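haha ok so turns out i had the wrong file open the whole time. this is the CORRECT one, sorry everyone. sequence first:
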Amino acid sequence: MRKNISIIVALITALFFLGACGGSNLKVKQISMSENPTEQINRLDNDLRNARNNQINVLSPQWFAKAEESFNNAVKDRNRGSALSDILENIAQSRAQLKRAKEFAKVTSTSLNKVIKRRKLARASGATKMGKDYVKAEGQFLDLMRSVENNNLKSARKNEAKVINAFRKLELRAIKEKTLGEVRKLLRQAEKEDARKFAPNSYALATNKLKATDAFISKNPYKKEKMLEKANDALFEAWRCIRVTRQSKKVRTMRPEQITLWYEKALYQTASALSAPDMRDEPFKIQV
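then structure:
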């Protein structure tokens, strides 16, 4: 309990300090006029890329955006031959803003670690392919980070659970799409081919397998081995449903003798492949 209180006090103190030093009070370390502006730009470009790789742009979106803007201004000034002092001033501003972004990133990483972990899990599962729903959740996530940057940790904590739930749902959807997407596609095809009419039992078995696997994933999203085992069973039954549907439609147009001869032919081909004697004069039970 005391440890948690200490962490909260430390975060509030850090936010107060960062807020007091924000905006026009940002401490900018000037760069010597003897420095090569191109070398400074290249070095800053590399630092910004590394920061992006470390998710600083996500954990402190406002300050990172400011750092990028100042960097871009420095590049523009260099390219159009502006005064060296202007170029170096923009570089210095960018470095100070990037430093501030990293400081806020440490705060958000600690204070909102649960939603950060949930976002990471969702992205790892393929949630970024969920279109507008993912974009919406990502926007809500960035709003939390901006709240911290604006010294409103209370608001961020209040809305954290909602964003965690959004990423949780996206993660499950992504896992199910990756695991069961092909099964759903095959069953839709089976429905188009009138599986409900021509192979009702096979269709029911396949859909029940799908539902059972879907429910299992909802409760056990990280039991990948068992999940894949169940998904493969469902995929097998989905393909089987389509095969039975098509064969049932074909058999429906055949006369009794044609059906019997077709069955006999299948047994004969199997016997031949096994080098067994021709047993078409035997009862079907013996042939089997």
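The radius of gyration is 32 Å.
again sry for the mixup
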